[in-house]
User: Fold this.
Amino acid sequence: VGPARTIAVTFLIPAFAMLWGRVFLGEVLTWHMVAGCAVILLGTALATGAVRLSGRGGWGGAFALPARGVFRFPRGCLSA
Assistant:
């Protein structure tokens, strides 16, 4: 799996804390919280390679998904 994808779990802790706070404690979500969650998800996607920037000019204004499946398990990973 590799360290880059493994550390992604740590990146997602604040987003899930916000979700569970809303579901179980009835906390109010603000737009600041939702915007922060979006930044966390985008950063995690960029760090793990689930989303990559396209174009030659830096941001280029567009995102592209990789050609190969990112969320596939390696062979033999799920075998008993």
Q: What stands out?
A: The helical segments are 3-6, 8-11, 13-25, 31-48. The two ends are 18 Å apart (CA to CA). The CA atoms of residues 20 and 57 lie 39 Å apart.
